[in-house]
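Case study: Peptidase S8/S53 domain-containing protein.
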Amino acid sequence: MDSDLKCLVIIRACGIYLIRRILIAFEAAINDRVDVLSLSLGGSPVEYYENSMSIGSFHAVANNIIVVSSASNDRPYTCSVGNVEPWMINVAASTIDGDLTSFVSLGDNKTIKGDSLSGMELLPRKLYPLISGDHAKYDNVSSNDALNCIGGTLDPQKSKGEILVCLQVQDDCHFLCRTHKVVEAARVDGSYIFNYINHTKSPVAYIYKVTPDIMTPGVNIIAAYSEARSPSK
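Here is what the predicted structure looks like once written out:
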């Protein structure tokens, strides 16, 4: 195939409702008629009929799609490969000792280290109002859904020009997002930040931009994405 005719499609399948999102991602790839699926997913092996990776990859292969994935072993233990489906191609993908570091500075002079995949232009160097998702929700949605920044729960007019803190309990971490595009700007330990928001009259913060290198390992690596849609969607 001519290289000019090739297309790279990036599908995000993490976050809450992980099993459902993985199957939806497989379905989207099949509908897009991709030739190769490269998966950065894995976990402990379970029965095929209970494994979203097994089910999704089987349907993909049945539609003549080559499925490639990391072996997903549980180091340092032997015989711990997670992706054992015979219809998939397993490859090695390592972790790295470097972080995609970002820092969040709060109005109380506390600086918190986090991770970031933001490639956006740096905002003007000043402190911005800091709010949690339940303070930017539409009137007809629950505070819990808004705290998790679930799609369709946040009113852009209520968060415009502010830094929005999103809670994701399932992954035991918290996100801070720049709200004019709602792209993940820094992944941090949010306990201190939520306490700061709840006990400060006018909480403010600033997020330092980072420019990470792209490497060959397969964990916490930035994927390419189109500017037509943010990488958090």
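For the exam, be able to explain this: The longest strand covers residues 101-106.
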